Amino acid sequence: MRSFLLCYLMAATVMAADKPIYWLLWFDTEDYVEPSADDAALRLATDLEKAGVRATFKIVGEKARTLEARERRDVIRALARHDIGYHANNHSIPPTPAIYLKPLGLLEGADEFFRREGQGVEDIRRIFGVAPSCYGQPGSSWGPQSNIALRRMGIPVYMDEGSQVGYRNQPFWYGGILYVFRLGPFNMRADLNDESKLAGAKGRFDEAVARLRQQGGGVVHTYYHPTEFVATEFWDGVNFPRGRYTAPSDYKRPNLRTPESSERAYRILLDFVAHVKGTSGVRIITARELTQIFDNPLQPADTPEIRKQFRKAIDINGPHSAADQLLALLGFPPRYVDGPAQRSDSTVESTQIPRELYNRGKQDAIDYIERHQRLPSHVWFGIERLSLADFAATVAGDAGGQTVAVQRGKLEFETHIATDPRRSFDWAIHPQGFEAPELLELGRLQAWTLKPARLR
């Protein structure tokens, strides 16, 4: 019996060690006010390269242009040897993304995001010679319309931290983009100001790795800003507090660290990185590798299982989003479509819809999806309509008779979207008391596309 238990424990240990654990290290490279932040980015890129670690540097468009104008080719070359992501065109110069996206709908907002942010992407391509691997919003300035624009820009990954949307503290698919967002306990940093706390940071990392191994693998990420290694306050907090505009000629430099404090910060980071690198079974990757480690997001769905699921609630089911499941019920092969652009109520008063009228409305919904590549907000049956939720539940409950019973759909997947419109957008650069319930509502509508990202 003892020999059996020993063999079992040894096998369990080996199996746990085989679970894939990935660590992402990324830097929001944004400070175009303080020149020493350029040197910080250079040192981080150089030191990490010497340590055999590639990080992702998410670069602001204006920062890239500033490096070019300052003729810092040394910084550009050093960063280009790592992975290059995108971190907005102007970062904190008002209006920031959530500000200008708030009054706009899904499609108009996507066009506006593309108009305002597209130049930064092109400048990153030109200056660094590579397409950005990912995008992350400045501060908490998030909006779901950005997903459509990012797809147009050829950016497949959304990598940042925020509270607006998440799924079980691991990567997920949302809006046709792979999101590494709201990782909760798997988002961690070592305190750059206190070496006595470094052991605790290492311990939290080890705990996160152990927990992910129990879950079958997963992703941990750590992020900093190069400016943190040379300054004691953020450059944008000095120049753009609460949405205030400051002209470039009036920019104020942030207070700087002492040389000793700066050296301590670099030392703490490299010590933490060495710990991660030395952890068995952990692979360090960049944002550019993320789409290679997750399964194809489009998987065939089991129609009987969907009907069973939708009778309880319209929700994520295994690897399938609510949109995936509805498309399968409508006879589509696996494909991506956006969620509806707005919310609509049902006006159908009867409990039954005649078969011929039902088939006509159902075909109209199929035609709409084919034409617009997104789900409709409602489906017409004569002069009455069903909301998308009620339509989905009704399709799932269709028993094939001469009439179809009207069902009411419960949208369970919307629980993965934040509900506090003020706390979700709290940022020192947003106006005092800023809130954006409109963006969270659009986020809920697009949650029809939400589903977990599963490791290969």
Main attributes of the structure:
456 residues; alpha/beta; TIM Barrel; 2 domains; 40% helix
Q: Topology of this protein?
A:
Elements: H1 2-17, E1 21-29, H2 36-50, E2 56-59, H3 61-69, H4 73-80, E3 83-86, H5 97-101, H6 106-128, E4 134-135, H7 146-153, E5 157-159, E6 172-174, E7 177-180, H8 198-214, E8 218-224, H9 235-239, H10 259-277, E9 282-285, H11 290-293, H12 303-312, H13 322-329, E10 352-354, H14 355-372, E11 378-381, E12 384-387, H15 388-396, E13 403-405, H16 437-446, E14 451-452
Parallel strand pairs: 1-2, 1-8, 1-9, 2-3, 4-5, 5-7
Antiparallel strand pairs: 6-7, 6-14, 10-13, 11-12
Helix pairs in contact: 2-4, 3-6, 6-7, 8-10, 12-15
Detailed description of the structure:
This protein has 456 residues and is an alpha/beta fold. It has two domains: 16-293, TIM Barrel (Alpha-Beta Barrel); 303-335 and 347-407, no CATH class. Helix content is 40%, strand content 12%. It is built from 16 helices and 14 strands. The protein has helices at residues 2-17, 36-50, 61-69, 73-80, 97-101, 106-128, 146-153, 198-214, 235-239, 259-277, 290-293, 303-312, 322-329, 355-372, 388-396, 437-446, and strands at residues 21-29, 56-59, 83-86, 134-135, 157-159, 172-174, 177-180, 218-224, 282-285, 352-354, 378-381, 384-387, 403-405, 451-452. Strands 1, 2, 3, 8 and 9 form a five-stranded parallel beta sheet that branches. A hairpin with a 2-residue loop joins strand 6 (172-174) and strand 7. Helix 8 (198-214) packs parallel to helix 10 and helix 12 (303-312) packs across helix 15. The longest helix has 23 residues, at 106-128. The radius of gyration is 24 Å and the shape is globular. The two termini are 36 Å apart.
